Amino acid sequence: MRLGLDIGGTKTDAVAVDAHGTLAGRVRLATGWGPDGVARTVLDAVDALVATGVDRGAITSVGVGMPGQVHPGSTHVLHAVNLGIADFDLAAAVGPRLGVPVGVENDVKAAALGADALRGAAGGTMAYLNLGTGIAAGIVSDGVLWRGAHGTAGEVGHIAVDPRGPACTCGQRGCVEALSGGAAIARRWGRPSPLPVVDMLDAADAGDARAVELRSGLMAGVAAAVRILVLTADVDVVVIGGGLSGLGDRLLGGVAAELEASAAASDFMRSLGLVRRIQLLPSGSPAAALGAALVGSTSAPETRETVKHG
Question: Which parts pass through the membrane (predicted)?
Answer without folding.
Answer: none
